[in-house]
Amino acid sequence: MYFNILPAYFKTNIVCLSIFMLASTFSFAQATESSKIAITAQQYMEEGEYKESAKHFLKAHKQAPKNDEYRYQLALAYYRQSKFSDAIQHLQPIIQQPAEKLEYYRLLANAYDLKGDYKQSVNILQKALKQYPTEAELYFDWGVIELLRQKPQVALEKWEQGIKVDPNHADNYYWAAKVYATSNEPLWTLLYGELFMNIERNGGDRFNE
Length: 209
Prior knowledge:
The chain is built from eleven helices and no strands.
């Protein structure tokens, strides 16, 4: 009743405010619902139920399509089912612009590699290195990709590049030591092995090896 006697200016602003509040409430409800779905999806992921995890992350993604993390987790669930094409389909849009997280590039490169697309896998790693030039994990991944193609020397070059940009990353030392152990230069195995153990001091299978 009182609304009818207010000046037009105030009527307009109250209507706009009401619409804004309704929209905000709806967005918050969507965010809350998508978060709940994502939590369930993550539980399935941790239990190794990747098919169910993918189904729930897909629902969360549809409710919050701008949430890159949901899309990444969905791709991870597909990846763990060896559905590499599906993983690529959901990861590729995330990296059209510089990706928010290094993991997005790593998973996409590995998905391409396991699908058999070596060239595209390397292209993704090169793109990632432009944004993250000092991340040793990218050189580690690249080295593994080359080793799988029976190119141990190229793999060693990548791991040694990784050691150069980040001397505290253990994985590159570990794999360099393993490859040198099968070469005619075993002295490098001792060197890289000792450096690896100095970094990874908490024991475990790799340390014992």
